[in-house]
Amino acid sequence: MSHDAAMSVQHPQDIDQGHVVARYVSNERRYLKLLGGGFLRLGEAERAAFIAALRADALQVSPEEIGALLGYEWRSRLTAAWLVGVARRIEWRERVGELLLASELTYAGQGYCFALAQFGGKNDAEILVSYLDRYLPHLECRYDQGLALGALLRLDSRLGTSHAERFAVRDGLWERWVDALPHTRGTADAWADASRSRIDAWCNLWDA
User: Which end of the chain, C or N, has fewer beta carbons within 10 A?
Assistant: First the structure.
């Protein structure tokens, strides 16, 4: 998907990082296991191995490798966002925020919302607020609004803030966005709770 002016997409080979996709993204089909938090549905031993490998890579991946991944297609961006989120590499906050607000590519936004929730600061909450202000009014657009609200709810609970309240009030932006589709009408509260639970499930693993 692309609904803002597209940010440049560059193949990692063009910047001498041609190894990064095979190393971090497609190895063991990692991106598929990250997609939608699919790794949580793995068996216990396989999930533990996946988590350990992701944690190790998150700690050792270089800035140049992260930059190459974030500059490429959705699988690479999704994976890179998880890597910086797991290790809480907050120096990537601005770039992650730019990519979320541009919202160019399907699925990558899942990773951006996770990363911002992991970073856990007031600046991350402000990015999520900006995203929701921009995209909730577009009732026909089904991008990452749900996970963004879930991430913001998590940050509010941790920061003692209440940024999500103005979106979630009766007949507010969130309810109108949810109610825009017949099959989700009337589920605004349940969807908000489910989105928060999903983000919590992804983030709580790394606090252990």
Answer: C
Q: What is the DSSP string of 42-90?
A: S-HHHHHHHHHHHHHHHHH--HHHHHHHHTS-HHHHHHHHHHHHHTT-G
Say what the pTM is.
0.94
Collect all residues with Cβ–Cβ distance below 8 Å to 78 and sequence separation of at least 6. 31, 34, 35, 107, 108, 110, 111
Whole-number pLDDT of residue 14: 67
All residue ranges of the chain with pLDDT < 50 are: 1-6
146, two tokens: 């749900």
Tokens 């992701």: give the residue. Answer: 54
What are the Cα distances from residue 29, in Å, to 34, 44, 106, 205, 208?
9, 18, 18, 20, 25
The C-alpha torsion from 143 through 10 and 69 to 96, rounded to 10°, is -50
To 5 degrees, how large is the angle CA 71–CA 19–CA 49?
Answer: 95
CB 167 within 8 A of CB 134: no
Q: Are 145 and 133 in contact (CB under 8 A)?
A: no
